[in-house]
Amino acid sequence: STYGAKVALGDLDGDRDTEIVAGQGESPSLEARVRTFRWDGAAVTGWADFHAWDAATYGVNVAAGRTGLTP
């Protein structure tokens, strides 16, 4: 895409490995789509590809962080 991507890193599935979260960049024609990948490029099961909001455009910002209370 000529509009780039928004990227964040975090442990999404609790396996202590960092996953990559990517959202499509800002553009009037891009959907608010989020994709997640493992470090080797494989999709993360259960998080692989989804629309943040139905029928939304102009891309999406992404963030990742730890939400669990266990170390």
Number of beta-strand segments: 4
What class do helices, strands and sheet pairing give? mainly beta
Q: Strand portion, in percent?
A: 25-35%
Oligomer: single chain
- General shape: elongated
Radius of gyration: 13 Å
Largest sheet: 4 strands, antiparallel
Total number of helices:
0
Question: Helical residue percent?
Answer: under 10%
Strand order across the largest sheet: 1-2-3-4
Sketch the topology as an H/E string, one letter per element. Answer: EEEE
Please write out the topology.
Layout: E1 5-10, E2 19-24, E3 33-37, E4 49-51
Antiparallel strand pairs: 1-2, 2-3, 3-4
Describe the model.
The chain is an all-beta fold. It is 0% helix and 28% strand. The protein contains no helices and four strands. The chain has a four-stranded antiparallel sheet, with no helix packed on it. The N and C termini lie far apart (38 Å).
Give a short synopsis of this structure.
The protein has no helices and 4 strands. The chain has 71 residues and is mostly beta strands. The mean pLDDT is 78.
Quick tags:
single chain; 71 residues; mainly beta; 28% strand
